Amino acid sequence: MKLLVFQHVAFEILGTLNPLLKDAGFRIRYVNFGRHPDAEPDIDGYQGIVVLGGPMNVDQVDQHSHLATEVRLLQRAIDRDIPILGICLGAQLIAKALGAKVVPSREKEIGWYEVSPTPEAATDPLLRNFGASEQIFQWHGDTFAIPDGAVRLASSNGCDNQAFRYRDNVYGFQFHMEVDPSLIERWLNIPSHQHELHALKGPPGAEEIRQETERHMQRLSELADQTFRNFVSLFGERQLYRQLPSR
């Protein structure tokens, strides 16, 4: 199976999702819109799409023209029933493609935050392994409304909409489950991120994030592995269904 990945900046990557996809036999093609903003990838022949994060707002089309391209491609992929996973900005782009608004969050979440699943998450194919609350890594200032016809799957105190599912194969995660300690450290050393942390004028600072990473990473790694394996299984089940001979 072939997977298309929309990337916006060099430091937002598949992370821990990458080896799971490769072990499952996916052929992964990256479209780096940060380097090639005029790219027009063809989604034909791809069994899935992952849309990664980035620091821009979905409506900054005048500065990042590729955002309009991505929304158009996502609408086409949804119409074609192609499975999609969006992370942070990726989730916001999916929400916009489905007609929902993306606005500044009432609280900028940077660091580790408690995320609580909704009752619907208990039977969701991806999030069914979540406990009553989980500490998950975040780095965002915007939030999406839940699109019409979608199911809200998680929330936090500062951000009501942390995850959603549309139909049975389109997911948006506001949080970052794909991180590991090295990726978090990389983010903490990016000058624009350091400026963003300083602008908060309060916790969490970089050192506090490092300490919380030590406390929470093992559980996040376990949860991410379960969630992403469920994601890979979703692709496999759909592919198997399509390959079954008709009677």
What is the CATH H-level superfamily? Class I glutamine amidotransferase (GATase) domain
User: N- to C-terminal separation?
Assistant: 24 Å
Tell me, rounded to a whole number, the average pLDDT.
93
- Known CATH architecture: 3-Layer(aba) Sandwich
Gross morphology is globular
Q: Strand portion, in percent?
A: 15-25%
Polypeptide structure, described:
The protein has 247 residues and is of the alpha/beta class. It has one domain: 3-Layer(aba) Sandwich (Rossmann fold), CATH 3.40.50.880. Helix content is 34%, strand content 25%. A nine-stranded mixed beta sheet has the order 2-1-3-4-9-8-7-5-6. Strand 1, helix 1 and strand 2 form a beta-alpha-beta unit. Helix 2 packs across helix 3 and helix 4 crosses helix 6. The radius of gyration is 17 Å and the shape is globular. The two termini are 24 Å apart. The relative contact order is 0.15. The C terminus is likely disordered.
